[in-house]
Amino acid sequence: MVVKTTKKVRDADATQARILAAAKKEFAKSGLGGARVDEIADRAKANKRMIYHYFGNKEDLFRIVLEEAYTDIRTAEQALELEHLPAREALEKLIRFTWEYYLKNPEFITLVNSENLHKARHLKKSDKIENLFKRFVGMVGALLDRGVEEGTFRPGIDPVQLNITIAAIGYYYLTNRFTGSIVFQRDLMAPEALEERLAFNIETIMRMVCIDP
């Protein structure tokens, strides 16, 4: 009986994981409005009844996918263990991580874009996001304080503003890569262009934060 119960739990967990992975791809590709539950069910090798049973309606499923997406990036940031590095080295590592995360997880950017079109109405219903971001802002704030103590960072920098800037200089580049490649007459996604952009991002942030960049 215990074995059967354990297997049932494992099967349920595996099904939910497949549904979430399929939903992430579908929402990232088509947005909330264009995403189809039938397509998610096909991708997940599940049926619509199971999706509604585990996650409620499509709006609820979208909110959970968003929560999972934000949880993933915030968890990965915590795993960097920046507190064990000198502040300047830690900040550069965070900038590199953010850029590389966006490149490796393009669905994250499209999901965030989609939620902004809906004026964050799903995140407003989330009881997870606030705690996730409190921990992250606390981590960046501690990094900045350490840099001031080490004599490398200017005092008085707002960790929220810094995070917005780090995110923005990578986010904008990637969300506008197609139009930018035409307007500026260069392939913004060529490997050398991506390396050049990362170096520019690091230099920009360091000049903002460091006493002696």
UniProtKB/TrEMBL annotation:
Domain of life: Bacteria
Keywords for the protein's UniProt record, in alphabetical order: DNA-binding
Residues in the DNA-binding region annotation: 36-55
Any matching Pfam family: TetR_C_29
UniProt keyword annotation of DNA-binding present: yes
Keyword set includes Membrane: no
Coiled-coil parts of chain: none
Domain annotation HTH tetR-type: ranges: 13-73
PROSITE patterns the record matches: HTH_TETR_2
Entry GO MF terms: DNA binding
Stated name of the protein: Transcriptional regulator, TetR family
